[in-house]
Amino acid sequence: VIPVDNTAQSPTPTFTALPTDIPIPPTEISCAYAWANKTLPDETAMVQDALKKAELGTVEVTVMAYGENCLNTATDEIVRFTVMQTDFYFTIPVQNAGDANEMGNWAARTLQVVKSFPPGKVPGPNLGYCQLNYQDGTASKILWVKIDMALRALDNGLSGEVLFNALNAP
Hints:
By secondary structure, the chain is α+β, with helices and mostly antiparallel strands. It is built from four helices and five strands; from the N terminus they run βαββαββαα. The chain has a five-stranded mixed beta sheet with strand order 1-2-3-4-5.
């Protein structure tokens, strides 16, 4: 047996971790989720500008993100908001809130503007909803429609009263 010479090897360093040296992994915040809306002022301004360019300057819009708030269960504070879709709320002045043909024509022109703001251009991965609030000064008619359904009706060539009735269907 040949003896092994260990004198040529460097000594093994020793290190003692002090409490301040030990990394502490971030703790996962326990969330309680709650549905929420968040107004999108920049997107509202973009859509309002698009309405003006489409000669629909009398129509007013509010654009809102719909999703979930993560609420810290220990503090009840909002930790983050996750967007699922963007919804559009239009107020449309009409001559007669009982005239389905007039409201359908307004819907067609308004939905053309909505069509130019798909997911990716507005927050959220999904198409949301569109509220069409028709007002004639004394009466109003409100439609709440899924954007994908409304755009299919528009792409199928529906307009006027036929479009309005399709959008108004339960």
